[in-house]
Amino acid sequence: MLGVLSALRRNHIVFNRSGRQKTGISSYTLRYYDKAGLTPFVKRDKQGRRVFNDEDLDSLALIRCLKQTGMPLEDIRQFISWCADGDGTIDQRLAMFEEQRQAVEAQIHQSLLNLQKSIIRLMFIGVRVRRGVKPRLTVTCCH
Q: What is the pTM of this model?
């Protein structure tokens, strides 16, 4: 099991391949998040290795999720700080999540519009090709 599974100690794991698989976060990214102040909850063993419990791994997965939605690291850091502050910050956390949800929905809407434009352009090019006309690869769409 050397190097393949995490070292288990009382529901704690040392972050290695198993931790990466569970969270989807590489060791490099974890170090970056640590330096950015996103992982104040992380404990270390006597050798200085990061040690995580299941709650820590869930927190890392949430950080990754928020980052993938485009949330800035500073906002994620604020969210983590609010979590550490306890239940008195629930309203702020909910407001932050609502703002991020709206931002993600706006991104999705814009992506769908861009996809629709691309599909129309592809259809336009396909019609020209079937007619034997060389397609124009111009910036303008749907002449």
A: 0.71
